[in-house]
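Help needed: design a sequence for this.
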């Protein structure tokens, strides 16, 4: 969980630099300090730990006594203790001072620490509550000597999922993980306590190997002690302010300031109990944080039993000012869009997601009340549009479908109702045939809309079953008029995407004038078409701009759909960290509804792809949260689970991988999903190139006529066919394009393939080509590649030297091979690192046993 922070701290200490670990209570800072202590002591270091305790804050020398050393204070007090501790730290070896929770260390112990630091210059590692104001003594200690900072931020979705799995022994599903993330605001201690208490209270149950919610709430009495410990130290005004915020929920700052003094709000925000954000109108609002606090106050009756406070709040809320319209402008270039995404990563997923959902919930409830007051088609359509992206409320949707009066509805609204009903039919497990029947029945009842209904039926059939074999003939029979209605054009655009015709998809949506029935599908088609045609940066910029707009407009359909495009583009370019953040922000919203639930599943598999690829053995990833009933193949990259299952299977054998990948691609082609087949072939070829998959890739690209992939396919051909002369020429004259990262991945994958086949010389040649290529075109991150056993990664020279290391000295090896002793030492060091061997003799035995038969 905190490996990166632990390693950074150790690196600073090794250089004699002090470290300040900042984080909120429960952020894991003590856990990090304990792990640092363990690793330092394991390597022979000596640690002197001062533990700050709230109850010992006013006990003189409590921190010094807690060291457990024979330090007698005597009449000299601080100076005597400093002399004794200095004597310990002056001994040879690595000695480190550590202070956990410095805000609770007594002043006398702080004075000892300051004196010792001045005398010894030893590094100091402290954990600090980043929401506290510090005394002058604490500040003096923190400022002594060179120092670095390690900031602990709230956990992201993937980290919360891993922590739940570690705590409960099994992972939680998407909805449970998102709910725990939101309630805890990403605080590790709260994540653990909420998960433990929910399982103890039967608010979560283990089903099919995953923890799932059994109700609508996670609050239970077992959480009271944890929350009350979090609130310890707050004064009466601050507790009253939190009770007020529990009553009003998220509200504009200017409204809250009428019932809560601004100084109190600022103190609570500084201590992490208030999160401030902008809503979709650009109005600054605040909410209680973490949200589990609101549950505590409501469950305690404290928020409902103070009538005077409630009346005062009600009067303030009646004066709510009108919301100003926000600036709708977005970044206009790839780099600025990417920088905006980097800036967004510093925000709290849980806080922003909670605010987003609160506003959507208000909208959904208002629209449902309107429908209840007048059960017309237009009211039903307004309500159902929200559920094209938000989590499904099954009871309400069933009521809307069964009780809406359709006699006097607008035909366009009736078509939307029919399409949504067809989607609901599929979503509830009744099958594609029943959905198509619903649409065709509508077409029969409304002859003027028959073509649109049939186009919608073709779209759903292709999306959830397979592409019609006579698609062009079927579309021709509809006698479409360009720009008429837009429904058929949207369907045609999506189907052209499925069969890897991005130019046809763009032409279809550009010729249509309206998209009332399929809301927000036009930008999805446009962004996806840009991506698959090789205009990767353009697609990413477009998708990130659309995502920002969708977040402002409370459009969860748009957030999920745009994030799918952006995540695919980021992974394709090697921006894995950015992609994982982006997908995590979507997962934190919970599982969406209708069409985009398949995109949500695709991103879960994409988020698990790097771990599945680099793991030596099968391991649980976020992909486990995707629907298990998902098909092996699908219309868009990642919609089917086949590629992920192929990658996650262990062990990897090149011929077997090539054979299984080719079978999967042929099955995708059989369903008519040419786009998915193309990207499956691209990814498989670059990850572990093979002849069968390459031939399929060449065939797909030849038929599609997409020229932007020509350089990549040509290089893949030279790699697979072992034509090193041609490969050298192609790489020498390579012009950087959208597929530069994939070329690096292809060269790395070829090296891995040769290693798995035992051809170390060919692997070394590919390694040299890879090193030269990445030196010219540095990748955005580490190149994705399969892990192979350590002994297979040795170069020819490393194998040769390792074979001699068992019975010759470094000098003898150097003389025998005509190289320097230093070079021999470097090769042996690299071989030990790659293989994990603990000695020269173990390395010799490993190489002898692995290569003797070859």
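Sure. Designed sequence:
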């Amino acid at each position: 969980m905190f490996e990166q922070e632990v390693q950074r701290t150790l690196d600073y200490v090794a250089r004699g630099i002090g470290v300040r670990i900042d984080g909120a209570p429960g952020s894991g800072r003590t856990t990090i300090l304990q792990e640092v202590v363990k690793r330092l002591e394991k390597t022979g270091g000596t640690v002197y730990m001062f533990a700050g305790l709230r109850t010992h804050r006013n006990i003189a020398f409590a921190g010094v006594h807690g060291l457990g050393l024979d330090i007698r204070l005597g009449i000299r007090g601080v100076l005597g203790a400093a002399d004794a501790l200095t004597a310990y730290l002056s001994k040879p070896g690595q000695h480190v001072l550590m202070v956990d929770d410095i805000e609770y260390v007594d002043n006398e112990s702080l004075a000892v620490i300051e004196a010792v630091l001045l005398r010894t210059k030893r590094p100091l590692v402290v954990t600090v509550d980043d929401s506290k104001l510090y005394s002058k003594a604490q500040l003096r200690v923190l400022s002594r000597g060179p120092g670095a900072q390690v900031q602990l931020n709230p956990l992201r979705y993937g980290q919360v999922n891993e922590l739940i799995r570690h705590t409960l022994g099994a992972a939680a599903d998407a909805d449970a993980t998102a709910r725990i993330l939101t309630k805890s605001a990403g605080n590790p201690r709260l994540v653990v306590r909420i998960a433990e208490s929910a399982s103890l209270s039967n608010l979560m149950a283990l089903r099919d190997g995953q923890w799932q919610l059994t109700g609508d709430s996670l609050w239970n009495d077992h959480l009271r002690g944890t929350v009350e410990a979090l609130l310890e130290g707050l004064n009466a005004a601050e507790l009253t302010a939190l009770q007020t915020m529990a009553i009003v929920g998220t509200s504009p700052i200017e409204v809250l300031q009428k019932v809560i003094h601004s100084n109190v709000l600022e103190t609570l925000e500084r201590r992490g109990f208030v999160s401030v954000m902008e809503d979709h109108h650009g109005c600054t609002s605040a909410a209680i944080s973490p949200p589990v606090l609101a549950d505590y106050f409501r469950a305690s009756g404290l928020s409902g039993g103070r009538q005077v406070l409630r009346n005062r709040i009600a009067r303030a809320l009646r004066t709510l000012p009108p919301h100003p319209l926000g600036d709708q402008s977005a970044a206009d270039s790839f780099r600025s869009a990417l920088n905006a995404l980097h800036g967004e990563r510093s925000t709290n997923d849980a806080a922003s997601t909670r605010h987003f959902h609160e506003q959507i919930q208000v909208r959904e409830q208002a629209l449902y009340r309107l429908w209840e007051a007048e059960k017309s088609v237009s009211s039903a359509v307004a309500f159902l549009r929200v559920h094209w992206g938000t989590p499904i409320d099954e009871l309400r949707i069933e009521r809307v479908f069964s009780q809406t009066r359709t006699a006097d509805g607008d035909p366009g609204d009736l078509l939307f109702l029919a399409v949504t009903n067809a989607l609901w039919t599929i979503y509830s497990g009744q099958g594609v045939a029943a959905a198509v029947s619903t649409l065709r029945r509508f077409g029969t009842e409304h002859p003027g809309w028959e073509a649109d209904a049939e186009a919608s039926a073709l779209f759903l059939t292709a999306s959830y079953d397979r592409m019609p074999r006579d698609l062009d003939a079927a579309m021709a029979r509809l006698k479409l008029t360009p720009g008429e209605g837009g429904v058929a054009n949207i369907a045609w655009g999506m189907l052209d995407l499925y069969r890897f015709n991005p130019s046809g998809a763009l032409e279809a949506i550009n010729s249509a004038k309206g998209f009332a029935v399929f809301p927000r599908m036009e930008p999805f088609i446009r962004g996806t078409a840009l991506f698959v045609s090789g205009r990767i940066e353009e697609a990413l910029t477009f998708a990130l701009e659309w995502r920002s707009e969708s977040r402002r407009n409370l459009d969860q359909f748009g957030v999920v759909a745009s994030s799918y495009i952006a995540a695919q583009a980021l992974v394709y370019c090697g921006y894995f960290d950015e992609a994982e953040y982006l997908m995590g922000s979507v997962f934190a919203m919970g599982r969406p509804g209708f069409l985009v639930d398949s995109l949500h599943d695709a991103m879960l598999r994409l988020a698990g792809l790097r771990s599945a690829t680099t793991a030596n053995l099968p391991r649980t990833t976020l992909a486990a949260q995707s629907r298990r009933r998902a098909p092996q193949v699908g219309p868009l990259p990642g919609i089917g689970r086949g590629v992920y299952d192929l990658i996650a299977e262990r062990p990897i054998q090149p011929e077997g991988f090539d054979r299984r990948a080719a079978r999967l691609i042929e099955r995708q082609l059989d369903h008519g999903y040419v786009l998915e087949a193309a990207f499956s072939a691209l990814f498989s070829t670059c990850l572990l190139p093979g002849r069968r998959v390459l031939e399929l890739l060449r065939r797909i690209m030849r038929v599609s006529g997409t020229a932007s992939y020509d350089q990549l396919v040509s290089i893949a051909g030279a790699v697979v066919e072992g034509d090193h002369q041609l490969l050298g020429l192609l790489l020498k004259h390579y012009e950087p394009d959208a597929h530069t990262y994939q070329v690096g991945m292809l060269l790395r994958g070829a090296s891995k393939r040769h290693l798995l086949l035992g051809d170390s010389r060919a692997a070394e040649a590919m390694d040299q080509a890879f090193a030269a290529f990445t030196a010219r075109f540095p990748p955005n991150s580490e190149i994705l590649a399969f892990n192979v056993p350590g002994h297979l990664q040795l170069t020819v020279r490393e194998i040769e030297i390792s074979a001699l290391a068992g019975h010759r000295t470094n000098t003898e090896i150097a003389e025998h091979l005509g190289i320097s002793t230093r070079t021999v030492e470097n090769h042996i060091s690299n071989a030990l690192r790659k293989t994990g061997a603990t000695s020269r003799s173990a390395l010799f035995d490993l190489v002898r046993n692995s290569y003797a038969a070859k």
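The chain has 43 helices and ten strands.
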